[in-house]
Write a structure and sequence with these properties.
The chain starts with about 35 loop residues before the first helix and ends with a strand. The protein is elongated, with a radius of gyration of 44 Å. Strands 12-15-14-13-17-22-19-20-21-18 form a ten-stranded antiparallel sheet, with no helix packed on it. Strands 30-38-34-35-36-37-31 form a seven-stranded mixed sheet, with no helix packed on it. Strands 39-3-4-29-1-40 form a six-stranded antiparallel sheet, with no helix packed on it. It folds into eight domains: about 1-55 and about 65-100, no CATH class; about 130-180 and about 735-755, no CATH class; about 190-300, no CATH class; about 330-385 and about 540-615, no CATH class; about 395-530, no CATH class; about 625-725, Immunoglobulin-like; about 775-855, GMP Synthetase, Chain A, domain 3; about 855-970, no CATH class. The protein is built from 14 helices and 50 strands. The model is unreliable at about 1-5 (pLDDT under 50). The protein is an alpha+beta fold. The chain is about 15% helix and about 35% strand. Strand 48 (about 945) and strand 49 (about 950) form a beta hairpin.
Length: about 950
């Protein structure tokens, strides 16, 4: 057989030894095949010459001993090849069956489902998305103004391209009102302004506020002032005995002030008893806000020419006061007539909680609508007369004094300046007479000064302000003004003679002492009172706010009602935000309502006050469309009857239970409601119960009893009727403002939308998740005791994608902080988080305090240069490397508090086919200050901890897809 010319039958080579079958622990797949086709083929060919029929006998004849051919076209060899192929197929499926029998190695979801069911674990069916809907009620004249939204009202989404519309249904009934469409926070406050002497020579324009309404440390705040120390611009307004005063540098005047220009002077006059105080300020900016029917004017003090100093820093924005209600009023049993005086004294003058005010309205038999109208009218009472000399004043004319344009004294003819007959012997350029004298220094009488030209409309009692670069501005009251002829300073013409008045209203006996020079003094005359309008509250509705004061009174808002806050963010211009807050209480005081939000954290975002809208016609809704279905006939003669629902998947909603979800299925047999339970085991023979199973195609089957474990179905024609909802998973996580199509339009409804995207959904449990979660039922037996129990319980809860439990020391006591993330990668839905909190509380030790928090997402950036084998296309290799990085460091593959190392990144890139070498250039946190340049060896991700006095949740470190850069490097 060693002759090379002979056919190589290999029959003398003997049988090759087989590799022993050994499976180490923890392998992702089992090696179970006894052999493959080549091995089977070789062994059978080797055994052909040795084969004999019957019992083994060394001396027995071997009929195939003479078969020496091994050619593939031989019939015997072909038959052996076919048998080897059959054995290969059988052994392949034998190995597959062996792998499907173990949880770690199973690759079919059906296998994992049945294995988990063997230990009492059902694969999570998934959870439907939830959202809050905002309804708008028609408020046009003649509309009812009220609309009832029934529970289960379907709303359909407007789908994006290549997507299907999704149906949501309201979770409860909503009584919507037109006045709740869009509540607004309080936007203005009364312009109760006064003058305050902060020093002997310093005066400020201040806004008067209730004592204690401003937080300590507010800039320009003067707390605890007695009203006797203030000179109010409107003495007719009521004021407390002690107030706070806030310096301001902006006023809002009526629409008549639109003639004021930047650089004009404004006079503010305050009064206290008979005493007056004046303050002159200059307008720095003027903006006519026509839409709001007001003129905004910025102010600055005039510089002091004697002692120039930096003007004081004034408060440009009026902040929101700290709301303080004091004692709450109680409903009165005795009759109170519905009059404006009683409304002001009984309702507006006290602080009321919503429940007490509603009781008051009911007892008195008042109309809630009329009460709101009366209180709203009291917020804008008719204007009351004020002292004629007090208020804010602008000036209609600005001009110089007679002689300011006179020629130089030296330019006059000598006959006018020298000799005994000279008209002007005194040089007015060197002596610079004041406006109170003539050119030769003689006091003017009886008039005090002459303006350079006549000014019509000057009336006694009006104000005059004199301004000069060399003298501090002064204010005078005008006693008399008349047109007169004047000849002086080598000039002659018509002028305006002014006579000033003293504080008693009588003419001054002597000219004022201020040395206003005739050439550089400007007179501001023809004063006009400008009404002060309410000051806008420009401070934002800040993040963390718990109390939000509304612009009007609103009745009927119940505790626990969800509210939607929608508007532009104040911290990020151009970005809108929305959030849902729960109402804890409503307080009515001073003619307005204040919303008290539930929880200590308040609002999540900071909103521009003027753009914020608070929607109170809000109701929760969940994904899924209602289905009414007749399942079939009951048969009492048949045990364990089974029916399958026709429209999968059956909607499951998040619930505070060990399962974390509850089905929407309701089954009635002969009109009676039967109860669903996990298993028929333990059910009594007469109990109307059924068990449900969900197969691998998401079809739900209903299994009924046999008369020993659960009652049998009664016999009847079409007597099984099921109502359920269909639809769940991530398809229901629709974008914001897409749920806008109600399937039915109730009377009075204008529209509907969702200000926030739907969230909290989870698809049916994936293979890897089921592989990890199935043993948890055996580890904790649905009890939360140890630290891993908290983590395992939270991780297996529907709607939760990541979870980690850490012990954190708070005040010397250890507290469990469970950091979680939703199934879609963001913060968990509020309802899911609340259900998880309640479920853990029900299953854990009450003495062990725990908290739930959304884990913090952090990102890193990566840049590397790859040396690529020339046989491979560079673009394909780079794309493959990028895809592997995104997969390995994406949400699904990462754990909380898992660090990233440079070695792991390089090893991953080295596994890409075609990569010869890797140079990692950048590995740094994204959006943070890096600890060093280039590639850091380790990027840490921290677990829950106490930092800066507060508990911080665990971190999830992910790669930023926009910060991955792979380049080809030439070797």
């Amino acid at each position: 057989m060693s002759d090379d010319t002979l056919a190589g039958c290999h029959c003398c080579e003997g049988q090759q030894p087989r590799e022993p079958i050994y499976n180490a622990p923890g392998l992702p797949a089992l090696a179970w095949r006894v052999d493959t086709q080549p091995g089977f083929h070789q062994r059978m060919l080797t055994g052909l010459p040795l084969w004999h029929p019957g019992e083994p006998d060394p001396g027995a004849p071997r009929p195939l001993a003479a078969l020496g051919t091994r050619e593939a076209d031989d019939a015997t060899v072909a038959l052996v090849d076919a048998a080897a192929c059959m054995a290969d197929v059988l052994s392949f499926y034998q190995e597959r069956i062996a792998n499907e029998g173990f949880l770690r190695t199973a690759t079919e979801r059906r296998s994992v489902l049945e294995l988990a069911r063997a230990v009492g674990y059902e694969l999570r069916p998934g959870v439907a998305a939830g959202v809050h809907l905002v309804f708008t009620v028609e408020d046009a004249p003649g509309a009812p103004g009220v609309c009832t939204i029934a529970a289960g009202t379907p709303i359909q989404s407007v789908p994006p391209q290549d997507k299907l519309p999704q149906v949501f249904e309201t979770s409860g009934e909503l009584l919507a009102r037109a006045e709740w469409n869009a509540l607004r926070p309080r936007l203005t406050r009364p312009a109760d302004m006064a003058l305050l002497d902060v020093a002997s020579d310093s005066r400020r324009l201040v806004l008067l506020l209730p004592q204690g309404s401003m937080p300590p440390g507010t800039g320009g705040l003067h707390p605890g002032l007695a009203s006797g120390d203030l000179y109010r611009l409107d003495p007719g307004l009521p004021v407390d005995a002690t107030v706070d005063a806030l310096e301001v540098a902006r006023v809002y005047l009526g629409t008549d002030a639109n003639t004021i220009q930047a650089g004009d002077l404004l006079l503010f006059v305050g009064k206290n008893g008979a005493a007056l105080r004046q303050l002159v300020l200059r307008a720095t900016e003027v903006e006519d806000e026509k839409a709001l029917q007001r003129v905004r004017i910025g102010l600055e003090p005039l510089p002091d020419p004697v002692a120039p100093a930096a003007p004081p820093r004034l408060q440009w924005h009026v902040p929101v006061g700290v709301l303080s209600f004091g004692n709450f009023a109680q409903a009165q049993l005795e009759s109170v007539s519905f009059t404006s005086g009683n409304i002001a004294n009984t309702i507006s003058g006290h602080a009321w909680q919503e429940s007490e005010l509603q009781a008051m309205v009911t007892i008195q038999g008042w109309s809630g609508l009329q009460l709101v109208q009366a209180v709203t009218a009291s917020l804008h009472p008719p204007a009351t007369p004020v002292a004629p000399e007090a208020g804010a004043f602008s000036f209609g004319a600005r001009l110089g004094f007679f002689g300011n344009n006179a020629p130089q004294w030296n330019s006059l003819p000598a006959s006018n300046t020298k000799g005994s007959a000279a008209y002007y012997p005194t040089d007015w350029d060197s002596t610079s007479p004041s406006v109170w004298t003539d050119s030769q220094g003689a006091a003017l009488t009886p008039q005090h000064a002459y303006l350079e030209r006549p000014v019509p409309g000057l009336v006694p009692g009006s104000w005059v302000v004199l301004d000069s670069p060399a003298v501090k501005a002064s204010t005078y009251a005008l006693y008399d003004a008349r047109e007169a002829a004047r000849a002086d300073y080598g000039l002659s013409g018509r002028a305006m003679a002014l006579r000033m008045a003293g504080s008693d209203g009588k003419p001054l006996p002597a000219p004022p002492a201020e040395a206003f020079k005739f050439r550089d003094t400007t007179a501001h005359v023809a004063s006009r009172r400008q009404p002060l309008v309410d000051l806008p509250i420009e401070a934002p509705v800040a993040a963390g706010t718990v109390r939000v004061e509304l612009s009007t009174m609103v009745l009927g808002l119940a505790r626990g009602k969800p509210l939607a806050f929608v508007g532009p963010r104040s911290d990020i211009p151009g970005v809108d935000a929305a959030e849902i807050a729960v109402l804890d209480d409503v307080v009515h005081a001073n003619g307005r309502s204040t919303l008290v939000l539930k929880g200590k954290n308040g609002l999540q975002f900071s909103y521009v006050r003027e753009g914020l809208r608070i929607h109170a016609n809000v109701v929760a809704a969940t994904h899924g469309e209602s289905v009414q279905e007749v399942l079939g006939n009951g048969n009492a003669a048949q045990a364990f009857q089974q029916f399958t629902l026709r429209r999968p998947p059956t909607t499951h909603l998040s619930a505070a239970s060990a399962a974390g979800a509850q089905s929407t299925l309701a089954l009635r047999v002969n009109g009676l409601l039967w109860s669903e339970r996990p298993s028929l085991y333990g059910a009594g023979p007469d109990e109307h119960v059924f068990a449900t199973r969900i197969d691998n195609e998401a079809r739900m089957s209903l299994l009924f009893g046999d008369g020993r474990q659960g009652a049998r179905l009664p016999t009847g024609q079409m007597n099984l009727r099921a109502s359920y909802r269909t639809g769940l998973g991530r398809d229901g996580e629709v974008a914001a403002d897409t749920l806008t199509m109600p399937r039915a339009m109730p009377l009075g409804l204008r529209g509907v939308t969702n200000p926030l995207p739907a969230g909290g959904a989870q698809d049916p449990e994936k293979l890897e998740d089921a592989r990890r979660n199935a043993p948890l039922t055996l580890l904790a037996f649905e009890r939360v005791v140890s630290l891993p129990d908290y983590q395992d319980y939270a991780r297996a809860f529907p709607g939760i994608g990541k979870a980690r439990a850490d012990l954190v020391s708070v005040g010397g006591a250890l507290r469990v902080l469970v950091s979680v993330l939703g199934a879609t990668g963001g913060a968990p839905d509020g309802e899911v988080l609340g259900n998880l909190r309640k479920a853990i509380a029900d299953q854990s030790d009450p003495s062990q305090q725990f908290e739930l928090a959304a884990a913090a997402l952090r990102y890193f950036r990566c840049s590397a240069s790859l040396v690529i084998d020339p046989q491979y296309e560079a673009d394909t290799v780079l794309a493959d490397g990028r895809a592997r990085l995104l997969q390995a460091y994406g949400f699904d593959a990462r754990d909380l508090a898992q660090p990233v190392t440079a070695a792991a990144v390089q090893a991953l890139l080295h596994q890409v086919p075609g990569v010869v070498a890797v140079e990692l250039q950048v590995l740094q946190p994204y959006g943070e200050d890096p600890a060093g340049d280039g590639a850091q060896q380790v990027l840490p991700a921290f677990g829950a901890r106490r930092d800066a006095g507060s508990m911080q949740p665990a971190e999830l470190l992910l790669i930023n897809p926009a910060a991955v850069q792979l380049l080809e490097a030439k070797p």
